[in-house]
Amino acid sequence: MVVVAAAVRIAFVTGADVQSPLRVDAGQYAQYAHNLVEHGVYSLSKEAEPLPDSFRSPGFPLFLAFCRLIGGDGGWYDLTRWLQIVLSTMTVLLSYRLARQFLSFGPAVFGAVLVALSPHLVVAPAYVLTECLASFVVTAALCTLVGAKGMKRTVAGAALLGLAPLCNETMVFLPIVATALWWRRDRRQAITILCVALVPLLCWNVRNQTTDLARKGSERATASISHGSYPGMIYESERFFGFPYREDPAQPEFGSSWGNLYDVLAPRVQAEPLRYAKWYLLDKPVWLWSWPLVQGTDVYVYPVGNSPYERQPVMAATHTVMRWLHLPVMLLAFAGAIASVLRRRTTEGNAAKMLGWVAILGTLAYLPVIPDPRYLQPIRPVLFVLGAAAVPLLAALFQKREQPSAAAVT
Q1: Residues 153, 149: Cα–Cα separation, whole Å
Q2: What is the predicted pLDDT for the residue at 209?
Q3: Phi, psi values for residue 349, rounded to 5°
Q4: Which residues contact 247 (CB under 8 A, 6 or more apart)?
Q5: What share of the chain is helix, strand, coil (3-state, %, to 5)?
Q6: Helix 380-409 crosses helix 59-99 at what angle (to 10 degrees)?
Q7: Helix (H, G, I), strand (E, B) or coil at 247
Q8: What's the confidence (pLDDT) of residue 38?
Q9: What is the pLDDT of residue 205?
Q10: How confident is the model at residue 137 (pLDDT cuts 50, 70, 90)?
């Protein structure tokens, strides 16, 4: 299973031609890494003497800075993608080990195979984007923590859990959920998880509060919320689908501050409350769990030429199978998440419940912004494990319904 996962990832990364790979977000991450290596400053600026900022979370830029230190200006890009292949492949193995915390061998393998063959996860190592690293960190944190029996492994899991928000700030709920679930079982462990997991985030915030920053993360937050406020991701013309803010005359002031955000969005919601309620409460969750990317094509974030999914029969077959399986697997994942949250405590401990809350809260965390399936990448392995977990649950329910029927006939 791991060998197959590595093979499809290597085939895609080495065969596909990512066009303009350092555009938009990727270019900003690369600029942060450049400034860290060349100037020792965490900054997005391209000035000769860049000023520090906190516009983006530091996890992935630090990873890129490491690649620049090792690979140099000429080799960091290839090194980054090869390391991401390793991380993405290890995520498959970690997904299996996570599933085995509360599932039998068969469902655990099924969930891990979905992680191995998912085109969304296969293409991730080809991009200089945070999703691949974030997926690995979240899966490693959950795998380590839910299986922890001693304090050392608990501390290790909590430390990984604390790194997740630095890779993706929406994952800040993870330490809180873990602390709440462990509180009833072992308060000492719960306090340890909270304290250890908050250390990285605390250090990042202390740095931001004690440094004069040219740009702050709140600027990106308000802009992202304004970009995701358009029902159907259309303002007026379908030509700008996915990018409606490009034709909105209220932009960029709309997303430039919290005050402007409220002044523009509040009247729009008041004018069409039902439309906006449907957009945020129904449409966005469905879009987040859907297959095609909103700001992309199929599973590609940036345009890709010579894709192995289009020219290699085996790769194309895996894409087709996973595309057809997507809807039933996501329905199973939804059922598995709800069942895991509602189920009483079992001998497996908090494993299933933790995954259920991660899926639910991870979805809710992205409701304010653009509902792009790309953003659920860090928890996509969790969704596949929950989908696999739902299979034996449904089988057990079916058997319970069959038994009374058989008894009645007898």
Answers
A1: 7
A2: 94
A3: 80, -140
A4: 235, 236, 237, 240
A5: 75, 0, 25
A6: 20
A7: coil
A8: 95
A9: 94
A10: very high
Give helix then strand counts, H and E, for the chain.
17, 2
Q: Please, which residues have CB within 8 angstroms of residue 342's CB and are 6 or more apart in sequence?
A: none
CA distance 56 to 401: 52
**Local structure of residue 297 (DSSP, 8 states):** B
The rounded distance, in Å, linking the Cα atoms of 69 and 61 is 12
Q: Tell me whether the omega of the peptide bond preceding residue 252 falls within 30 degrees of 0, making it cis.
A: yes
Q: Say which amino acid occupies 291.
A: W
CA distances from 28 to 75, 129, 130, 148 (A): 18, 10, 11, 37
Rounded alpha-carbon distances, angstroms, from residue 294 to 91, 192, 297, 333, 360: 25, 39, 8, 21, 20
With beta carbons less than 8 A apart as the criterion, state whether 89 and 2 touch: yes
DSSP H or E stretch at residue 55: none
Residue 337: how many other CB atoms lie within 10 Å? 25
**Whole-prediction pTM:** 0.94
The three-class DSSP label of residue 336 is helix
With vertex at residue 391, the alpha carbon angle to CA 99 and CA 110, rounded to the nearest 5 degrees, is 50
- Cα three-residue angle 209-214-219, rounded to 5 degrees: 85
Distance from C-alpha of 231 to C-alpha of 239, rounded to nearest angstrom: 15
Domain layout of the chain by residue ranges: 2-405
